[in-house]
Structure formats: C-alpha cells, structure tokens
Amino acid sequence: MSADAKELPKISFRQVRKEFAVRADGGSARHFVALDDITLDVAAGGFLTLVGPSGCGKSTLLDLLGGLTIPTGGTILLDGRPISGPGRDRGIVFQQYALYPWRTAVQNIEFGLEIAGVGARERREKALHYLDLVGLSAFADRFPQELSGGMKQRVAIARSLAYEPQVLLMDEPFAALDAQTREQLQTELLRIWRRTGTTILFITHGIDEAIVLGQRVAVMTARPGRIRQVFDIPAALHSETGDVRSLPLFGEVRYDIWSLLREEVARTQAARPARPPQSSPELAHVQS
Ligand SMILES: Nc1ncnc2c1ncn2[C@@H]1O[C@H](COP(=O)(O)OP(=O)(O)O)[C@@H](O)[C@H]1O
Ligand SMILES: [Mg+2]
After folding, report:
1. Is 55 in the pocket of ligand 1 (CB under 6 A)?
2. pLDDT tens, residue by residue, 245-268
3. Residue 72, in any domain of the structure
C-alpha cells in the first residue's frame, strides 16, 4: 500500500448540506436546513465521537453516512468514493435496536448473515464468535425478553459486527442504559475497536462518554448543524488501566468541550425565548 493510500481518510464529508422540505402553515413547501457545510474526516481505524445540542442534526449526519438519505449538497466519500446508498460495509447501531423477539440471541445475530447467503455452519460460527466478543457466550439461546437492556444492546452490537463492516455507525447506542452498564459497554466497545480495527463514528449527548471513547470529539453547532470544533483527545485519557475520569486532564478537556456546548445550547434557547433555561433538556445533557 502506498503512503497516499494509507493517508486516504476512511470517511470524508465535503461541504455536506442537508435540507428537508417542510410544510409551512399555509400549506406551501419550505426548506429547512438541518446540516450546513459539514467538512469532516475520519481516518481508517479511527474513533470519532460527535456531540451537539438536541436537534442539531447528529442523526441526520449519521443517516447520510449510512446511505439512508442523500445530501442536498456536497459529497460524502467512503475510501475516496461517493456513497450511493446503504451497504454492508457500514453497520449501524441505534439507541433502541429492535431484536426479533422470536429468535434467540445467536439467531438474531445470524439473521443478517442468512439474508446475505452465508451458509448455515459459517454463520453459526460467526454469530458465536461475535457473541463471545460482546461477552454473551453463555446467553446464546436466550430470547430477547430474557435479556437485560444492556445484554440486548450487546446482541445488537454483535449483530452489526457479524457483517464485519469496515465502519460502525452508532447513534446514542448506550443512552437508554443505566450508568454502570453504560460504562461497562464503553470499555467493551473500546476493546472490540482495538481488536477489530473498525472505523467508528459514535454519537452521544454525554460529554464524558465522548471523551472516554473518542480519539477525536467533534462538537456541532446548534441548528443548522455545522462542525464547530474538533478536539484531539490526549492519549493519556485512553489508558486501558486506571480511572481516566478522575485525572485532572480529563476535567480540563471536559470543561473545554462543555463550555463550547453550553454556548451552542444557549443559541438553541435564544431561538426559543419562551423556555426557561433551567428546565431545558438540552442543558440537562450538557450538565450531565
Ligand atoms: N425527515 C425529516 N423531515 C423533516 N425534518 C427532519 C427530518 N429528520 C430530521 N429533521 C429535523 O432535522 C433536525 C435535526 O434532526 P436530528 O438529526 O434528528 O437531530 P439530533 O440527532 O442532533 O437530535 C431536527 O430539527 C429535526 O426535526
Ligand atoms: Mg439524534
């Protein structure tokens, strides 16, 4: 592989814009700008986390990358080639990942492989491998209703990984979990990322989560979503041993990101003056 090829970003947003047509009160169509001038690269094997006020376009950006919707302007490149639709090179994990209730954990993971035409024996082997990777070997034959929220989300992650996607897109995947389970899954996701070399783009509204996971943290502006700043997270905060959250450096990085986010949330509120700032769910996110 040449030096140039190595430096080619895995994911590249080039001045991406996304508008939605919305119906105004009179019934006439109006354009609503959700994302504007998004330029952002993610290196192959990189881990980028994305934070921003509620409604700033984070999920919209991820849907574009997943090929679920198309940009109004600009281009999104994957390995230097424009994205033309969904593909098995990108796995997506949402906050609430619907597992099939009539299928066991291992059968849920096998499902996509079955659709893809992978033979019975190979897909069972793969499914069991990824189930093991997320620490659920002992629960292969359990049905979703017999699993906790954290376990279900692990199955969802294993299901996405089983395709062996080069890129994993995660939209607040741990938001619905309790704090302890969330931290555990963060640690596991980092371990899986180091082991598989998957490129990850992870959306969160938790600043701590963004710092713990991301090599880089991109902060988005309030509507329309733009990239306000990208922080490089010092390697010292990604040590595999010890409690990085208690390091003074963690607090410093956290404060910088928090300050920026607070400004953006305040801008969201300026656009909606009727709402008292203290009761805003967006600010609750920033403070959490
Ligand atoms: N399909 C759609 N049609 C119209 N507006 C949309 C659509 N999807 C998202 N939006 C709007 O785009 C903005 C960004 O939404 P979203 O990407 O879900 O934000 P976030 O994930 O950052 O909370 C919101 O104002 C939302 O209402
Ligand atoms: Mg969202």
Report:
1. yes
2. 999 999 999 999 999 999 999 988
3. yes
Tell which atom from ligand 1 comes closest to the C-alpha of 61.
17
pTM: 0.89
Please give the residue range of the domain that contains residue 64. 3-89+165-287
Q: Give the three-state DSSP class for 19.
A: strand
Q: How far apart are CA 183 and CA 242, in angstroms?
A: 13
Q: pLDDT (tens digit, 9 = 90+) per residue, 49-104?
A: 999 999 999 999 999 999 999 999 999 999 999 999 999 899 999 887 679 999 99
Tokens at residue 89, please?
């090179």
Domain assignment of residue 194, yes or no:
yes
Q: For position 27, which CATH number holds?
A: 3.40.50.300
The pLDDT value recorded for residue 1 is 47
Examine residue 139 and state whether it is found in any structural domain, yes or no: no
Alpha-carbon span 76 to 185, nearest angstrom: 29
User: Strand, coil or helix: what is 137?
Assistant: helix
Q: How confident is the model at residue 115 (pLDDT cuts 50, 70, 90)?
A: confident
Cβ(34) to ligand 1 under 6 A?
yes
Q: Is the CB of 58 under 6 A from ligand 1?
A: yes
Residue 206 belongs to some domain of the structure:
yes
The tally of domains found in the chain comes to 1
Distance 137 CA to ligand 2 centre (A): 31
Give the pLDDT score at 284.
45
Q: Show the tokens assigned to 217.
A: 């943290």
Q: How far apart are CA 40 and CA 244, in angstroms?
A: 27
Picking from 202, 216, 200, 219, the residue whose alpha carbon sits closest to that of residue 262 is 219
* Cβ 204 under 6 angstroms from ligand 1: no
Q: What is the mean pLDDT of residues 224-252?
A: 92
